[in-house]
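WARN retry 2 of 3 for item q-0093 after timeout on previous attempt; input resubmitted unchanged.
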Amino acid sequence: MKPAPFRYHRARDVHGTTRLLAELGEDAKVIAGGQSLVAMMNFRLARPAHLVDIAPLRELDRLGTGPGGALRIGALTTHHTVETAPDAVLGAGFAVLRRAMGWIGHLPIRTRGTVGGSLAHADATAEWCLLAVTLGAELVATGPDGERRIPAGEFFLGPYTSVLGPAELLTEVVFPRPAPHAALTEFAERKGDFAIVSAVVDLDIEAGGVRGGRVGLGGVAPVPVRVPEAEAVLAAGGSFAACAAAAAAAADPPGDANGSAAYRRALVRSLVERACTEAAAGTAAGNATRKAVSR
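OK item q-0093 returned
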């Protein structure tokens, strides 16, 4: 199929783009890499009257560490840029982001798809959305009246819905602190498909022991969610298996053509335990497990 008719606008600068979006209102959609929106338009699931192309805004294509060791990623940075970023650019403690990129679609998608586009699309199974919520990222939105910083946990409202206003542009995501002991795992029917369930674990390790951590899940609710029950197990010194069991018990996933609620809870238990193990063991174990699961 082909998309419904629309008017094309090419952005020149961020301020001008937000003013244009304010004029066009809710009939406009922003396009960056186009890996999600174009497919929806071709199937007529999205029918914007105006398409605003922000690809020319090269100032939003940036990646690097800022004050306090925070990692700042411009909205037009591609998944592949993060995937191939050297340690000197990505910064110490953010290797989990590099490793997680291998789960996103296939190489052509990663070379065109953007970090900001994935976050603004607000798919509850998307890797960037889950990473942002679990690792406590802040999202920077720019509108005609200036910038505002939004905690990732408050950004997502429901399936494909966020707090971004019609005239706002997502310009940057900031990960405020390193996550040297973090891992993402997920399960999909085929390599490159959207995950049925995904999990991120970010452990606090001191003197060789786990002192706590953060546990996040995708695919079990309308938005990515943290699991306080599982985090409490880690804080109390419980085992990874007990943490995973707590996450599965707390999850209330939907049942659909991809699997029943019971099936998804079983995936939660398996994936959370695996993510805990990978996070504790480090990069080598994480990469080996990812290759095994994706076969």
